[in-house]
Structures are given as C-alpha cells and as structure tokens.
Amino acid sequence: MVGALVSALFVLLPATTASAAPVLLSQGKPVTASSQEHYGTPASDAVDGNLTTRWSSAASDPQWIRIDLGAPTAVSQVVLRWEAAYAKAYRIELSTNGTDWSTAYSTTTGAGGTETLNVSGTARYVRMYGVSRATQYGYSLWEFQVYGSDGDGGPTLPGGGDLGPNVDIIDPSTPDIQGKLDAVFKQQESAQFGSGRHAFLFKPGTYNTINAQIGFYTQIAGLGLRPDDTTFNGDVTVDAGWAGGNATQNFWRAAENLALNPVSGTDRWAVAQASSFRRMHVKGGLNLAPAGYGWASGGYTADSKVDGTVGPYSQQQWYTRDSSIGGWTNGVWNMTFSGVEGAPANSFPEPRYTTLDTTPVSREKPFLYLDGGEMKVFAPAKRTNARGTTWANGTTPGDSIPLSKFYVVKPGATAATINAALAQGLNLLFTPGIYHVDQPIQVNRPDTIVLGLGLATIVPDNGVTAMKVADVDGVRLAGFLIDAGPVNSTTLLEIGPSGATADHSADPVTLQDVYFRIGGAGPGKATTSLVVNSNNAIIDHTWVWRADHGGGVGWDTNRADYGVRVNGNDVLATGLFVEHFNKYDVEWHGERGRTIFFQNEKAYDAPNQAAIQNGTTKGYAAYKVDDSVTTHEAWGMGSYCNYTADPSIRQDHGFEAPVKPGVKFHDLLVVSLGGNGQYEHVINDTGQATSGTATVPSTVVSYP
C-alpha cells in the first residue's frame, strides 16, 4: 500500500482566498493539551482533519487544548466536533502570547455534537478550556477548528500528497504483484454492495505472467502517457464464476491505459454496466462473454485498440466509441459503434449493428500518469468528428496538470473541507473510499477536474444534493459513484442551475464514468438522479440505476421517479444506461439533443398496471422527448421490460417523442424478457408489439 496508515488518513484542509469564506487556520498547526487519555488519542488528532481520530483528556476537571496559529491572526469562528464525551461548561479563550487570555465565548449548557461558535478577536493561541464535563469520561474532540483571515489571502496548505491506503502503486520490481492482485480480488469478487474500494496503478514498464482479475469497485490502470508504456504479458480478466457463469451483475470496475499480450491470445472482459474499458491496447482478441457463455449485460469501450477480433457472443448490448478493432463477431440486441475503425457496417436490424462513421464531439477522460517521478493528471483535448484512438499517432493532445493542483480527498474528509479546497482553486482527486456529505459539493470554477479513483463513492446525507456544478466552461467529472442516502434527495447531481443559458460549445462540461445508485447497498431515495441544465454538456458513459436487487429495495422503499432530466440545449450523450425508475427513465427538454446508444430496463417491481399508469398512457416511456422540442436525434436505442411482480403489465411504448421533422430516431428496439410484461409499440404508436416468452425484439429502423 502507498504510505503508512497514519499518513494515508491525514486530511489536508486547504484554505480559501481572503475574499472568500473564512479560512480554516488550525489544520495541522502545533497543538498542546493539559492531558491525554492514552497513547492513541493525542492532541494532534484534533487538528488532523480526520473525523475518525480524536483527542481525549483525562477524566477530571478542568482540562484544556490549545492551538498555536503561528502568528497573531484575526479569528472569526470556532467549530468543535465533539465525540460522545463532551463539555457541559467551557470557554473559548484567545491570547497573543500564550500567557494572557481573554474569553471569546463561554457556556454552561454545552450540547455536544458539532458546535459552531462565532467569535471575534486577534490571537496567535486559541484554547478550549473545559470547566465541567457532561459525562463521567474526559473531554473528547474529533476536531477543533479555528477559522478567520490568513492575512495574505493565499493558500495555507498545498494540494498533492500521497494517494491513501486503498491505492497500490506498483513497479516491475514490486514483490509478489500477483499476490497483491489476488488478495484484493478475493475480497471484491462477490462484494457487490460492500464497502471496499481499490485502485492498482502500474508504473511504466513490462510485467510478466500477470493475470489481474478485477472484482467490484476495483480499478486497474497504467501510469504512462500512452497505453503501450505499461505492458502486461498477461491478462486483465473479468469472469462470472462468483455468479454461476452469469455476468449480468458484473458492475462497477474499470481497466485503463494498459497494453495486454493475452496469454491465450484473447483477453476476457465479461462485464455488465458501469464497467469501463478505456485507453486499452489488446494485442490479440477480446472476449466480452463469461466462460460458458452465460448472459452478460455490458458494456462500454473508448479510445482503445484491439488488434484481433472482439467477440461479444452472449453480450446483450455494447457501445464502442473512438477506437480501432480488428473485427467483430456478432450482435445480440444492440451493438453500437461511433468513430470506430474496423467496425462492422451499419446493418440494423439484422445483424443488429448501428454504426456511425464518427463521434460528433468527444473528450477523453482525465487520467493519472507519471512525468519522471512526478504524478500528474492529463486532461485530453476535445475532438470533433472523431474516429480512432487519440494516441494512434503519438501522445494524446491535451493539458498536463501537476498533482499539487489537486486536493487529494481521503476517507474522513467533510463536504466543508472539500468545498474549501475548491474555493481555494484546487481540483479534486477522490481516493478510493466512501464519502458522506452533509452539504452539496460546489464546483464553481471553470475547468475544474473532479476525478475519482477506485469507484470512489459519494453519499448525500439528510437529503442534500451530492454535487452541484455552476454554469461554467470545461468542468470534468469522472470516475465516481453517487449513492443515494435514506432521506430523499430532490437531485443527486446538478449540472448548471435552472435556467442556465451560457454557450459552452468551445469548452463543454463532461461527465465520464459517473454512476448513480438508488438502493442496493441499503435504503436510498432520490426524485431525480441527474439534472443537466447547462448547454453543450457531454454525458459519456453513465449508469443511472434504481436497484432491482440488494438491500433497501421495493417499489416505494427506494423510490426514484426520474433517472435523467436534460434541460440544456445541444447536450450529447454517448453511452447512456438508465434503468428501473418509477416513472420516466430519461426526460429530454433541451433542443438539439443527441444520444448515441441507450440501454434501459423498466422497473421490475411495479406491483400492477395502476402503479405505472401515466394518465391514459400505459406506462412511462423509458426515453421521453418533451412535446416542446423541435430538434432531437438518437441512434442505437433499446428498452427492455421484465415486470416480474406482475407479468400482465402492458407498456404502450418504450420511446415517446413529438412527431416533428427535426425529431429523428434510428435503430430502436424493445424486448419483453421471458414474457414478463409486453410492449404495445416501439415508439409512440409505431412498431410491432412484443409477444410470448421467446424474448424476441421488436424493432424500428427509422422514425418518423
């Protein structure tokens, strides 16, 4: 693992500029205390930014803890984050010399929990002086935070640092590489709703006899500028032994920026949704099905080269973008390609290939790499009418950003800390872990990068929105999962405020491998998961999932009416997977929207026909274009119904759109899975009804 446990848990709380909100002054500063309960609770733990470590005193009165800010400073606020053992009576005291003290705040009715105290004064030393304990134990503080002005408006702490306890950085000389991979796979193979999060980052070089089996919430990536900089004479493997050969639940994992020489000549990547295969060079073939060819429900490839043939075999659907392949063997329901050299010709409905020569607009996901010994993030440039990989003729065009420009977010960081980092002008790099936020993460600066490693997961508490992005240019969100909390959130992620009007065509906002989950890991609720208000945004590979299995699942238990709502104009979705919502899975209100590849299942658990009735319409469409829209276009679109709670349910159509010359759909299908519910039409009142139990799609090649 990278770094010792203590340094890995250390959370830097960076400051803002003087014109912004008050600066956090106390983080990492020298601290002393009157006593310490035992060796594991030192005073320094109250200023380390980690909400899982604490200072605790001896069980007597009085006791104190004192922070040295280093110089006299204007102080405006103190935040005390108490453990269960809190102070009933205490004072906040200020001093410029450590000897003479003035009282800035006092109480005899302390309530514990988190106490935010507005104070005023100039101090080098700030002290919490405990007069009377509320419990039989000592005084115990998770964090003692002092805010004010830092005097010069500059940052008090830099970005960068180590990547925490859940990232393995490996080079060819690292001992027992296979053992490290196997140990994590053993933990993660079947941990579909577990708390483990992991990333393996391989330095440039050649690695022999590697078989990296990738389980849930695991990312493997090379640290070169090009995939061929990091070569495995071996495999990166996903199979489905844990599920009896059925790969339809092989979610939440990633492989990026590696070259593979597969041992057998063919690599196996048998994944389902939310599993990306980016910037990969497979010097052989690629098998997308599990051993035994059980069902699989992927999938997504981008900016990759497969020298041999790609065999989807039992894969229900797949989207490949801006890549190069040596061949493609077959299609089940929906195989879609845009900008892919070597892709099969468009032939929908038989074989079910939808092929666009280029991708209208694309910009690849940011990635970590090593520049000599320095860690940096590379942000690829936007392309228009793209075809093939970005790295075919050398280094990918784009910008290189040092890690020092990133706040490295580690488990225990609070939303307030994260927002302070953003206000300071830092980007965010979420290390693998689960992060609870009690206020929205506010991304307000143009061209900010928010990058997650190891499927880092953000959980909104108390019904807040997990993240909000201002109506600004160039923000890049990539590589994380938003998991709804038990209190309903109106939204989980908002791109731009309501009514956003700015033109971002030159530098769009991009979402890449950003996933959403409501239920499954436990109770969760969200009215709408993703709302896109900004114009020109690119949604590049997302899975927006209301859980149909796992914990906290039921028609009203994990209620989530809408998956994605697009209000902005000129928004492009490439690889849009949205499933199981109580009403519309996708609602599109913006003009000139485009979608290339859409995969959907309607909610399994609808209890009866009345529960999904939409006025006089039977069921809510999977993909609804608002009646006000005059221009919209979509390619390679599939919706499936599997109404297992009531197989008699009828769905009028999978797709609904206004009948206007500028609204066009290409290569649509609907499928009844085993006869559990049926569709009357494909789009509006066009297309044959599904029938029987044979799971045969009904298709429409062009609409209108």
CATH architecture of the domain at 23-148: Sandwich
CATH superfamily label of the domain at 23-148: Galactose-binding domain-like
Radius of gyration, in Å, reads: 27 Å
- Low-confidence segments: 1-20, 151-157
* Major beta-sheet overview: 12 strands, mixed
How many β strands by DSSP?
A: 52
> Could you report the average pLDDT, rounded to the nearest whole number?
94
**CATH-derived topology of the domain at 23-148:** Jelly Rolls
Given the helix and strand composition, which structural class is it? mainly beta
Domain F5/8 type C: 11-149
Pfam family, one: F5_F8_type_C
Signal peptide: 1-20
InterPro entries: FA58C, Galactose-bd-like_sf, Pectin_lyas_fold, Pectin_lyase_fold/virulence, SACTE_4363
Annotation keywords:
704 residues; mainly beta; Jelly Rolls; nine-stranded parallel sheet; 43% strand; globular; disordered N terminus; glycosidase; EC 3.2.1.58; Pectin_lyase_fold/virulence; hydrolase
Tell me what the structure shows:
This protein is mainly β and 704 residues long. It has a domain at 23-148: Sandwich (Jelly Rolls), CATH 2.60.120.260. Helix content is 4%, strand content 43%. It contains 4 helices and 52 strands. The strands form 8 sheets. Strands 31, 32, 33, 35, 37, 39, 41, 43, 45, 47, 50 and 52 form a 12-stranded mixed beta sheet that branches. The protein has a 9-stranded parallel beta sheet with strand order 9-10-12-14-17-20-22-24-25, covered by helices on one side. Strands 1, 2, 3, 4, 5, 6, 7 and 8 form an 8-stranded antiparallel beta sheet that branches. Helix 3 (415-424) links the parallel strand 31 and strand 32.
